[in-house]
Specification:
transmembrane helix, globular, mainly alpha, 11 helices, 0% strand
Length: 246
Amino acid sequence: MGDLIAGIFATVFSILVIIRAPSALREAARVRLWLAHLVMAMVLWLSVTAVYLSGDALLGGRNITNLISHFGFYLMFWLGGAEVALSIGRQDLYRVVHGTIGALVLGAGAAAMTATFIAAAPAYSAMGLDPFRGDPLIILYKVLSYLYPGFVAAVLARPMLRASVESPGLLGSAKRWMAIGFVLVPLVPVAHLGELLDPGYAVVVDLVLYPAIILVATGVTLAFIARQQISRAASSEHRKQTERSD
């Protein structure tokens, strides 16, 4: 089921990357959003077992692919968090997630995540590092993997939910889906910490993580569709006004 969900959304975001490429090349302001879609597509593809194992085999079969995917997750929230804050007109939140505080959380989290991965040294390639989840270092690595994403999501969840009420139609629905997904993201590292007490918490992680991915990815996809509709409507109105003035 995880492969199916990841594969569907990876395909969707790959298509969005291709569609958005021309506008990103024309307008520098859209490059960051395009890069966020590109990284999200990569992370989702690496969540498909066949892709993960094939890629990791090329890198020596020691789960370097897992580390790369989590770096991608950090980068995705670094880029996407900034865009979300700006999309709801919150420069203050932009400065939090993309300023000094955000940079410190991202840098410290990425460094600690890398250090624990190196210290744990998983011996062979395994999707999700599941065979190694009895190792406290692996659990700590997983906790740190969601430190910065959890921070960004916690900052944006409530303002995004408030913005969804103020936005009409499909755009409001898109923001609502993302907001609910953001609420779940900070719970992922907490659930991982529970694995130190009881390995059974691994099930709780999946129950939180997959819905969070689905909700955020769906929200982003709906937002793209809504923006396209708004853009077409604006272009149509502009043509009508031009025809009337002629």
